[in-house]
Amino acid sequence: MTKRALKRMAREGATESGHYGDDAKVRRLPVDIRERGNSWSPLGHDGASRNPDRDQSYLKTIKPKSPGQAELMEAIDKKNLVMALGPAGTGKTYIAIAKAVEALEAGSVARIVLSRPAVEAGESIGYLPGDMEDKLAPYLRPLYDALTDRLSSRRMRALMADGSIEIAPVGFMRGRTLNNAFVVIDEAQNCTYMQLKMLLTRLGWNSTMVVTGDPNQSDLLPGISGLADVAAKFDALENIGVVRLADRDIVRHPLVAEMLGVL
Question: Does the keyword Protein transport apply (predicted)?
Fold first, then answer.
């Protein structure tokens, strides 16, 4: 070493071998990120895959929170066509979409097809700006919300871009055969008997279809909805699952069950 370097190291308390004698003057960098205490880690403090510091975590599987939900999940696993009827807040749509995402990620199906009727609930959308797709976006928003809760927004956009996830109004389903797909028909109480007949006959090979709705909350004129009639006829068919959820299966705010009991 040069004399200048030896003098500098001597001032800083180091020996010729490069080791410092006074450890108090040395600030060590943490070797393991878990030594930082409350600092953020992509693996979490315990090394787990989910980090409690994250704003949101995405679970691969869901667990039923009521007997009705357990029955619905079991029916979806065992049957190719399931009808889920029940009041708002029972998790019908969420469970159906969660099962659809699970099947897609496992490679059981090649795509997810989500559909719901575009029925104006006492309001008009003609004034909304944009083309037809923009006008229909508010109707399809609940499906997007459920998807983003199961997938990250980036992952959802990528799957929609390559056609692995398709969201379409009921009117665009006629004439199609849905093979190797997981199909969810949401808000089916706003479908007529003939519309439901058309939708149900779209089922193709290696496909699963889940129809969700609440016959007591139809936005159609009285007697127009076909959901209750179709479900009653399917009760006699062993290969079709008809699951009727009740107020006890509501997993939203407890006031929802109380309100539905008196409204």
Answer: no
